[in-house]
């Protein structure tokens, strides 16, 4: 039913919009994460504080805030609702109303969504990310490559509906990485570990 999809979208958006990166850095006395680096609230920017444990916690919680509404929506309203919840959680993370619609770039949220929707596809996403990250030392390139290939694996392993969902998530992720894409094209994208940490 349409009303169930609306419920799933609301659930996904509200869960996805919880700014764990901002909350954790403030709780740790590191100030406003939006004032450093890229200014977004994701784990990559939290890592720029120099606190790896905080960045890891942000990554896990951002993935969980996507996985939770997906699993709840599936249990309550079915598979279509789960996919709607995944898309809405991604939107909530990237465009949280509480932060003026400026959030993170969505990598952890996409991981959490895919693991909850179809864990083999989620694991492949992680494997592709790790492969490119180790080979090229660029987090953004790894994320873009993993996102671009996710719809293919979703189609092969599951079905066209999941492929379409993964494709939409990938489009949103590419949009959030548009500045990174321009730097990659210019050859000026910084490599992992090369950026200065926040004082």
Automatic annotation (TrEMBL):
Catalytic activity: an acyl phosphate + sn-glycerol 3-phosphate = a 1-acyl-sn-glycero-3-phosphate + phosphate
One Gene Ontology CC term in the entry: plasma membrane
GO molecular function, one term: acyl-phosphate glycerol-3-phosphate acyltransferase activity
Enzyme's top EC category: transferase
GO biological process: phospholipid biosynthetic process
Membrane-topology annotation of the record: Multi-pass membrane protein
Pathway: Lipid metabolism; phospholipid metabolism
Origin: domain of life: Bacteria
Segments passing through the bilayer: 6-24, 53-75, 81-101, 108-132, 152-175
Keywords: Acyltransferase, Cell membrane, Lipid biosynthesis, Lipid metabolism, Membrane, Phospholipid biosynthesis, Phospholipid metabolism, Transferase, Transmembrane, Transmembrane helix
Annotated Pfam families: G3P_acyltransf
Main location: membrane
Compartments, as annotated in UniProt: Cell membrane
Stored NCBIfam families: glycerol-3-phosphate 1-O-acyltransferase PlsY
Record family assignment: Belongs to the PlsY family.
Functional summary from the UniProt entry: Catalyzes the transfer of an acyl group from acyl-phosphate (acyl-PO(4)) to glycerol-3-phosphate (G3P) to form lysophosphatidic acid (LPA). This enzyme utilizes acyl-phosphate as fatty acyl donor, but not acyl-CoA or acyl-ACP.
Protein's recorded name: Glycerol-3-phosphate acyltransferase
Organism whose genome encodes this protein: Devosia epidermidihirudinis
Name of the encoding gene: plsY
